[in-house]
Design goal:
Layout (H helix, E strand, L loop, with lengths): L1 E7 L7 H16 L3 E6 L5 E6 L2 E6 L9 E8 L3 H15 L4 E6 L3
Antiparallel strand pairs: 1-5, 1-6, 2-5, 3-4
């Protein structure tokens, strides 16, 4: 099962300890073959919408900062419970804030 774990933007300023803890966590998940991809996201982005034949492109940002996705991890695990435990471990490392996790369907 694949899950996309998204971390919402926060006002927390990362310190060296956070970077070191995250590096260990990422290294562990990579070595276990669980982590498929990870990265941070630019705050702006582009929105593309369509209605009939009309396609509109709008530059971001779109949501309030607290609603914006700041980073992601794509993991492959055996169960939803395993994904939730990874999410718990992540939140313990990064501290206060919010993450959203969604199952990814398909190959």
């Amino acid at each position: 099962m694949r899950y996309l774990m998204m971390s919402m933007a926060s006002d927390t300023v990362p310190d060296e300890n956070l970077y070191a803890e995250m590096a260990k966590f990422v290294e562990e998940l990579t070595a276990a073959g669980v982590l498929l991809a990870t990265g941070g996201l630019e705050p702006g982005g582009v929105r593309i919408t369509s209605s009939g034949e009309e396609i509109t492109v709008t530059d971001g940002p779109f949501a309030e900062a607290k609603e914006a996705v700041a980073g992601f991890a794509l993991v492959e695990v055996r169960s939803k419970e395993e994904a939730i435990e990874l999410g718990r471990r992540f939140r313990r490392i990064v501290g206060d804030g919010e993450s959203v996790m969604r199952q990814v369907f398909g190959p």
